[in-house]
Amino acid sequence: MFKNSKAFSSFSVPNIQAAKEFYGQKLGLDVRETEEGLGLRLAGGGDVFLYPKPNHEPATFTVLNFRVDNIEQAVDQLSKLGIQFEHYDYPEIKTDEKGIHRNDGPKIAWFKDPAGNILSVIEGD
User: Fold this and answer.
1) Conformational region of residue 3, where left means phi above 0, alpha means psi within -120 to 50, and beta covers everything else
2) Separation of alpha carbons 79 and 62, rounded Å
3) For the chain (length 125 residues), average pLDDT per consecutive 10?
4) Which of 15, 32, 81, 107 has a CA positioned 20 to 30 A from the CA of residue 26?
5) Taking the model in full, what pTM does it have?
6) For residues 49 and 83, is the Cβ–Cβ distance under 8 A?
7) Which pairing describes strands 62-68 and 118-123: parallel, antiparallel, or unpaired?
8) What letter does residue 95 receive in the DSSP assignment?
9) Taking a C-beta distance cutoff of 8 angstroms, is the pair 47, 61 a contact?
10) What 3-state DSSP class applies to 65?
């Protein structure tokens, strides 16, 4: 039924202008503001839609992952832009001083957007 239907992901934010600045200026994404919210164009042709929600509650899971060739460089560049990485010390997820999880699986580091939604950079294909 949906094999040829163009799908997109979406999540809420309480402040479209703060999201526009963060995703457009800090992360360097192609951002389009509409009457309904904010469209993000991702590499490879994917789309994400951010919609305003006054009673927004941040997602407690990762809503958007960015693949990078070198996680060290990505974390360093984002840190210079003022982005703070999450630090976890759970049995299954532990991060180092930079906020990078290096154990089982790919290297990954999590950070939040201004609305508190969790994003990540993840190394590899």
Assistant:
1) alpha
2) 19
3) 90 97 96 96 93 95 96 97 96 94 92 98 90
4) 107
5) 0.93
6) no
7) parallel
8) B
9) no
10) strand
